[in-house]
Amino acid sequence: MSGALFLAWAHIWHHRWRSLILVLAIALIVVVPVTVSRVVDAAEADLSARAEATPLLIGARGSRLDLVMSALYFGEDQPDPLPYQASEDVWDSGLAIAIPLYQRFYAEGAPIIGTSLDYFDLRGLRIADGRGLTVLGDAVLGAAVAAERGLSVGDHILSTPENLFDIAGSYPLRMPVVGVLAPTGTPDDAAIFVDVKTTWVMAGIGHGHEDVEGGASAGILQYAEITPQNIDSFHFHGDVGSYPITAIIAEPWDQRSSTILKGRYLDTSGPAQIVDPEEVMSGLIETVFAIKDVLDWVVRIVGGAAALAVVLALHLTFRLRAREMQTAFRLGAGRFATLQLLLAEALLLGGAAVMLAGAVIWISQPYLSGDAVQLLTR
Amino acid sequence: MTDRAMIEVTGLALRRGESFALAIEHLSIPAGERVAVVGPSGAGKTTLLNILSGILNPDAGHVRIGETAVTTLSDRQRRMFRARNIGFVFQDFELVEYLSARENILYPYRLTDALSITRDVRDRAEALAASVGLEGKLRRKPANLSQGEKQRVAICRALLPRPKLILADEATGNLDPANKDLILDILFEQAQAAGATLLAVTHDHALLPRFDRVINFDDFAAVPA
Amino acid sequence: MIRALMIALLLAAPAMAQERLKVSAVAYPLAWMAEGIGGDLVEVTFPVPADADPAFWRPNIAAIAAFQQSDVILLNGAGFADWTAKASLPRRALTDTSAGITDRLIETEAITHSHGDDDPHSHAATATFLWLDPAMAQAQADAVHHALSRRMSAGQETLDAGHAEVTASLTALTAQAEAIAASHGGTRLLASHPRYQYLARAARLEVTAVSWASDAVPDADQIAELSALQQQTGAAIMLWEETPPDAAIEAVAALGLTSVLVPTLANRPETGDYATVLAEALARLSAALAE
Question: Where does the record locate the signal sequence feature (chain B) (predicted)?
């Protein structure tokens, strides 16, 4: 067999470009279905894990999926706002912990999530560096935001103005980074967290006096900043209960509370709806799997066609070598020697392809789970 | 060896359908003799070489090469016998395009368990190549060798296992006149050096005087279909 | 089985006793209520320094972090301790003790201001010293009792007993206030600070306040302003939240005003507690009114 391996290798090396293409083709035939299946699996695992970890969601009536995607994955499509009072109502009901979420602004390209400290408890978010949210204006960064933008405690971030010409009140807010979260492998890594009150300041609902920095001349971007010097002048207008939020995560105390709470949102004419993220997500996951089924067939057909092409290519090379095989036989090679030769070559090419495929799959591993869901939630 | 013939063929018959493709009542060739085989196309010259080397088994008759009764051997035994005792030189050289000249010379050793590559084999391969003027060209692949050089590589390949019998099938057929003589010189020289018997099929009657003996296939009772 | 459970409970009891509920309060009376209701089951923190006014105190980061660690954070509501609106506090710990009595809060005159070129706008202001009305304090104590009960898995009897004691103190104070209302209802008073709205309502008194620094002697302008108010109202009594300098007492006495010390109790008193200090103050006020 060593002679056969030697000859196979010599043949492969002699036709190295052809061999390389063959190896790549075979590797692709392996990598594509495996990766597709892994992306779908990772997405499915991710989606269900996040959904399972989120008991109930309350938001304005509308797309249930948008609500879930916005509250769980901080997607770009926001449901209509809901008054903050809805969150207080949940607290007052004594049925559940209510965690408000207000997502509207961005900084450094990452979504700013206005919420309460309870969110950190619910998600088990741990501060890796610095401290947690303490005063108005504080910002805590998800691990990926900090790592990718090179931000750390002590830096400042500036919220993106919704409209540069919005002189009606909302200036970009400059916020100190007071903490960085430990990585979790969830969308929380890619978000910036502030107190929900801080997002209200960005929305122009809360403001201070003489707090706009950056010079008075027109054209220079002005921004607001909350400092120990001006924090006393910050105040909110109107009834806090009327301030906007985009969703409420409700964590019922028990099953009974959960049932009662759900019952309160049954009236379809009411402004708010309550959804069980797991339920909504399982619908999405079913869709994902339906797509995966189709994809599987496509991959199977394409893979099968590609495999046939590879077999044909191999067959043709072996046909071209028929004369060599005949000579080999006349020189004393056994009846199976030619078979051995072909087998050795198939083994080397296949082995190289599988190793290449394995390497690609292994290297792509860390990117899969994170990006998989993004592929689906974009 | 001297008193016994190297090749002894008796009552040989190979049928093809209802008729005989080849029938040889008796043929005896002494060791070390250089024999040319001539005859019209389709007369069975190549068939004879195939039977002598054990590639084909005759329907009847006996073939003895040296001490070995080839016709009594099993398939596997015949292959082993062929690898160890028969050196083939072909008209089209039949070199392996993806191997260097050196590896082409060693090629039979890669194919069968009957032969194994040792230090000694490699040294002999070098020496053999040098003796036919291939030094410095052993790393080249066939595509980068001239016709004459290719046939020299093929001769080295045939001779390396030290065969008792060299079968050359139109070995000079694809060469220009100058190369024909040169290659024949080399073939004779090497066969003699190895003490091997040479049986060469040829159409080139100009070369016949150089052989010890000429077997004309017209002498055999080839029965036409 | 039941025996085993009881033994387990008995063994667990000391451990549970060490796990005291952490309660933080933004105003002293709330801390007093939590201490009275929770007793040994709670560990009450009231971090405002003795020389600071809890209404305007601004905690540093460490103090806020301590609040964040609390199981229960007692807020007064009505906009008292404005810092709580600008700090991140865990909602699950927050208890607004006046949430159930917003309809009984007293609105004061609005504060108007403008932002740059914008139109002026106003903020409605609310009087914040609720606990100076013992009946309001009772509602707050009920809220504290409820908040503690909800977060304690055991010790309900202790909480109920504590609540009963606090209620008894507040009932006695309410009776004192009602007695003043009955005998001197409608009487007009002056005050050094606008902080007696709830006390005034409880005792049916009409209090007109200036806004003086309590440790300074009033200047001529201030005396003139006070004199005008005194003539307008015919008041004979001036309430002070802290003992004023003798010169100040003499200055107002010259206008015919008797000085009466009624601490506002936002911070912890040097001696006594909320109930005893307020009882004494009401007694002093009652005596002064009787003269």
Answer: none
